[in-house]
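In this section we walk through a basic example: taking a raw amino acid sequence and producing a predicted 3D structure, encoded as discrete structure tokens. The instruction is simple. Fold the sequence below.
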Amino acid sequence: MPRRKPPSIPDELLDQLLSGSDPRAVLAEVAEWQNRPLEALYPLVFLDALRVKVRDEGTVRNKAVYIALGVRPDGTKEVLGLWIEQTEGARFWLRVMNELKDRGVEDILIAVVDGLKGFPEAIAAVFPRTQVQACIVHLIRNSLDYVSYKDRRAVAAALKEVYRARTAEMGEATLAAFDEGPWGRKYPVIAQTWRRHWTEVIPFYAFPAEVRRIIDTTNAIEALHAKLRRAVRARGHFPTDEAVLKLLFLVLNLATKDWKMPQREWTAAKAQFAILFEDRFAIT
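The resulting token sequence is shown next.
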């Protein structure tokens, strides 16, 4: 069944919001939102990047805006913050993790990321018990970037066998078989990419099916990113970082108004979390 395209935010509504808002008032609201208190525990945090073009000292540069999407213990979602990349690597992520801690976050059970440089070291320094999990869907998409269009369906099906394996050992054996088979010989970089991230892939195999469905789905963040990307593309490049934050904040305000219910898998998943993280997660 084809994935249903998420409803977009009409350009007219965004234009009305942007033109009808006092820039200073919006930026003050952004600052207040970015510094608001957070929950003590987030069972899941998804971290992903959105690329934007920003004019900087007369030159248009590509910058990354990182978005943290948290799942509360009751299964409802919350955007924790937006950060425009200023420096790369562990120092940047250490600052972000310390900011979350200062705002009240005491524990994150699982952080789902897309190979962010320096992130595992930074989160280990601030939240040492957090399990870092590679985003499986992003890993597959990155793999398919190396594949010709006519082969993509077959290669994606073969890679599904890797992450659907029951154990890490079976998954590694399936990856080895893929690497030695026709697709691995034709596209050797794919197995190399998976092995490079294998430390962050392995935790996935320890989780039961209910938790796997929660952490490997992109529904939580993909629908949100589709709206953000559309708004960014419609505006080309931005004059300042503040202009980026203003637009994304206004889009987030619209996009998250309907976030009132948890994912349908959450009831089963939270029962598993209570067993897997018994001293850190309790069903209320």
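Looking at the output, two observations stand out. The longest helix spans residues 219-234. Residues 136-217 form one domain. In the next section we compare this with other chains.
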